[in-house]
Amino acid sequence: MHERMLSRRRRDERGFTLPDMLGAMSLAIIAGTGAVTFIRSQSLALRVQAGQTDLNDSSRGAIELMAREIRLAGYWPCGTSTTAPCPGGCPVVGGSGRGIFTGATSTLIRVQADLDGNGAISTAAAATEDLTFQYDAANTKVTRTAGSGGGAATGDIATDVAAGSFAIRYFDGTGTEIVPGAGGLTAAQAGAINRVAVRLEPAKATDARITTQAKASLWTNVFLDNYGKCQ
Question: Using CA of residue 49, residue 51, residue 52, residue 53, what is the dihedral sign?
Fold first, then answer.
């Protein structure tokens, strides 16, 4: 009797065998690997989402800035009536006298506006009365140049813009597209512009470990309400 009880106690106190431990370790490794894979995938997904959000915000800011400043083209407050003409007549821009330089293309536009109403266009960068938006193909970016000559200041407003992902189109009052020639818009074409359409579609890799790119596609139409009022 006593010997049977000791034998049973020994069997109960054997603990885990080696196969038991190996099986448990295998299950733990499988569970751990799954957890690591899940966490990694979630981390990469968050990176993609954050990168897409950043690109959307920066692209929207860039195209809204362009639209706001292109809309001011041809703003000459001192020439809107015969009782308050511009000193020396209306400012003349690129031969058109309407605010958009001749020579504008599908990737470059230069606009002027008499923001301070003094009857003259300031070419100082701080005045922002003379602005040029241009696609830089060599560096795949869109730049904004304020002023002209030695006092001009150029900065990037959009990066990671591949060739063909930035375009400017011009339309007259009937909705007919005005297509720049080899030398850009002529004076007559520039003078007939009623609407400017801008397309911006930047794209960039959000993470080196992911093949998915963050992409944004934005269009805007700018109606030139002040255009040509000073004639």
Answer: positive
Contact between 74 and 100 under an 8 Å Cβ cutoff? The reply is yes
**For residue 176, which of 195, 156, 153 has the smallest C-alpha distance?**
195
| 53/47 Cα distance (integer angstroms) | 10
* Strand duo 166-171 + 195-200: pairing: antiparallel
Matching residue, tokens 């002023």: 147
Mean pLDDT of 144-172: 93
DSSP conformation letters of 179-208: --BTTB--HHHHHT--EEEEEE--EEES-T
- The phi-psi region of residue 147 (left if phi > 0; otherwise alpha if psi is between -120 and 50; otherwise beta) is left
Question: Can you give the pTM of this predicted structure?
Answer: 0.75
Summarised one tens digit per residue, pLDDT across range 118-154 is 777 888 999 999 999 999 999 999 999 999 888 899 9
Phi, psi (deg, nearest 5) at residue 10: -65, -40
> Which tokens is 111 given?
């606009």
Two tokens, residue 115 = 């923001």
